[in-house]
Design brief:
Two copies of one chain form a homodimer. Chain A is an alpha/beta fold and 429 residues long. Helices cover 41% and strands 15% of the residues of chain A. In chain A, the strands form two sheets. In chain A, strands 4, 5, 6, 7, 8, 9, 10, 11 and 12 form a nine-stranded mixed β-sheet that branches. In chain A, strands 1-2-3 form a three-stranded antiparallel β-sheet, with helices on both faces. In chain A, helix 9 packs parallel to helix 10 and helix 13 runs parallel beside helix 14. The N and C termini of chain A lie far apart (45 Å). Chains A, B: InterPro entries: Enolase-like_C_sf, Enolase-like_N, Enolase_C-like, L-fuconate_dehydratase, Mandel_Rmase/mucon_lact_enz_CS, Mandelate_racemase_C, Mandelate_racemase_N_dom, RHMD-like.
Chain lengths: 429, 429
């Protein structure tokens, strides 16, 4: 049966989160938003994808999806699956639109939403959750999904294939482990910069009571505030619990090194986004200076070429790929494989809206077929906005339970789209 | 007298160049376009800025200007001049829009158009062409225009000031030299990939007859074609003439090294964009492998953090900053100073539409106050679309003549805007 894509619908959906201080950090104060994409087909099945944005400007990623949609509409799922790289490049290397990136920012994020919607469609047609759809795919088919252009100096198709083939060994045991225990997670909900000290203390206490043994705080404010808040949180955590710090790029390189010399007193497990996201060499210098504290980054790393360099330079000890900042599942696959080649654990970026739903599939697939270890692996968890999805994440005792419904879990409820649609939904009127 | 900005107008202007093969290279086939911005004031004077795009998608940079315009409308020129970094960050580090970059792609290019329009306004109010407006500015005021965040590990405000103060020594002699001889240039009009061999030969012959002694060809097609075309062009050039090559990012790192091993037979002066624009480490490897051929890049280098790293890593021998890919004059200043600190000559990227008009000012200022040498300095020249500007570049005998009218030279003729406005102008109906 041939399934043809008949159209692409895009919705500008925004949630008014900025007012509450949720999601506030050293550099962002956002209304969590989604550029929400649905691909429709002549088979009645639809595919859903989104890219996360921070409020204003969501209209730009929506418009970029519209500018790219003609590469998708009219194609069949079968021809896309048969020429993955051709399909991917038709979107990411469009001879006119590529100039607007290349492969970064608005145009690349829109590509991610669109490409993920097609992947969601494929998984739904196969009747499998995305993690299983990918994890059961033959190595050759996964390799054929990846554009190795501009990363072949770091990983070849042959090396990728070898990693994926090894991933079939012990697969059943790893799956049984996840089905029994779930996937480890950490929470970012305790320490947003917009929260007063008492709220931070109460939230940390509650998180510990709820079973969390790994929490992340925002840093990058005045250093004495960071130190005070780190003391509050560390004071509430039981022995052995992990405390991560996240400065959202606010520091210069030398400033990051100096700040971490003070903050290391609170035994941080990693420092996330210590400086500008594009600064591979700066991250490498910081990594050497703050070891054994790990440097983590990735949520705004533009594409596989940036991740390649972060890994080549020894700049990161944790790879925080995002599901929709890069151009969808195809590019994420290349980044998971690069991380495995360089021996760096992947802890995907999450939070925002829909990101938890997305990245659980990636972390599970990574464990089953690529990284094959839970050592140092955790999925970020933020307890916001899950109620707007038809298949929201389930988290219990600090662990994600396996999603079981077909697809990529980012289908939004029609009533949520209607309520929060910008600018005409009731929430915005 | 206080001058208040009363509004921001943006026009989507596109020229149908793709059909002729003009501007075709290994990765782009564009309709040269401008996101054209006018800031209006209560003093009647207006400022013009633009960012160059490649056709489809120009509506995205236009929409991004609209999303950013509220940071400009209502402000006075005096308050902007008094707090340059504050003004610049209000646009480039908007707490919601920054997520869409950060500082890259659509949102950053739009910032460039908008910020340059304000600079054009300032130069017009001062009654000076942009190069003179900048070149006559005190070192302290230039330094105060620059955001050193994320580059302070490579250049400090004190170092920048020292370079700019040295730039006043011998200033009059350098200016007299430019007034007498003009600024050296090279032409890219001979070797677009879309041109057949005979056209390439004829154009090269004509360029030599017109006084050009430095020409650039596009490479990155099938290697045997590149070799054949290089032979044709080199065969038409007189002894000592420079031949530059430009692969527009199409090669992988190892592929670039292999291709240059063959193409070096034609004595290229530089290889431009040998691989993905984001690949600092890749450029550094290529630079080591192809020396003494220089590696050049910059036309799609997203921001000062990328340039910083290219210089720190020894990855480039030529810095090709673009006037409007980065966020306007302020960020260009930081890049010129970084290049001077690292001893790398600046040959700005040009071509497209309006870029020659823009970058002549930057190269002239660089010579007068920053780099202080013409050794290895050339401005790219492409003989396209100059007729649409009220103060087009003047090039004679392979050299740019100094522009003399006030401003940044990118004001478009109203009749050109009307004719080529997309989608409603007569050229597009």
């Amino acid at each position: 049966m041939t399934v043809r894509i008949t159209g692409v619908d895009v919705h500008d959906v925004r949630f008014p989160t900025a007012a509450a201080g949720d999601g506030s950090d050293a550099i962002n104060k956002g209304d969590y938003s989604a550029t929400y994409v649905e691909v429709t087909t002549d088979a009645g099945v639809t595919g859903s994808g989104l890219t996360f944005t921070n409020g204003r400007g969501n209209e730009l990623t929506c418009a970029a999806v519209e500018a790219l949609a003609h590469h998708v509409t009219g194609r069949t799922v079968e021809e896309i699956a048969a020429d993955q790289v051709g399909f991917w490049r038709s979107i990411t290397a469009d001879v006119q639109l590529r100039w607007l990136g290349p492969e970064k920012g608005v145009i690349h994020m829109a590509s991610g939403a669109l490409i993920n919607a097609v992947w969601d469609l494929r998984a739904r047609l196969a009747g499998k959750p995305m993690w299983r759809y990918l994890a059961e795919m033959p190595a050759g088919e996964l390799v054929a999904s990846i554009d190795f252009r501009h990363i072949s100096d770091a990983i070849t198709p042959g090396e990728a294939r070898e990693i994926l083939e090894k991933g079939t060994i012990g697969y059943a045991e790893r799956l049984a482990e996840l089905e029994r225990d779930g996937f480890p997670a950490y929470t970012t909900s305790v320490g947003w910069l917009g929260y007063p000290d008492d709220k931070v203390r109460d939230l940390t206490r509650q998180a510990v009571a709820d079973g969390w043994r790994a929490v992340k705080m925002k840093t990058g404010g005045p250093l004495e505030d960071d130190v005070r808040r780190a003391g509050i949180i560390r004071g509430e955590l039981p022995d052995g619990a992990l405390l991560m710090m996240d400065s959202n790029q606010v520091w210069d390189v030398d400033q990051a090194i100096a700040a971490m010399a003070e903050l290391k007193a609170f035994d941080p497990y990693w420092i996330e986004e210590p400086t500008h996201a594009d600064d591979v060499l700066g991250h490498a210098r910081i990594a050497r200076a703050v070891a054994p504290v790990r440097v983590a980054t990735g949520e705004v790393a533009a594409n596989r070429v940036i991740f390649k360099q972060l890994l080549q330079a020894g700049a990161i000890g944790v790879c925080q790929v995002d599901a929709c900042r890069v151009a969808g599942v195809n590019e994420v696959l290349s980044i998971l494989l690069l991380a495995a080649k360089f021996g760096v654990p992947v802890c995907p970026h999450s939070g925002g809206v829909g990101l938890c739903e997305y990245v659980q599939h990636l972390a599970i697939f990574d464990f089953l077929r690529v990284g094959r270890s839970l050592d140092g692996r955790m999925i970020e968890y933020v307890d916001h906005l899950h109620e707007h999805f038809t298949d929201p994440v389930t988290v219990a005792d600090g662990r994600y339970r396996l999603p079981l419904l077909p697809g990529y879990s980012v289908e939004m409820k029609p009533e949520s789209i209607a309520e929060f649609r910008f600018p005409d939904g009731p929430a915005w009127r």
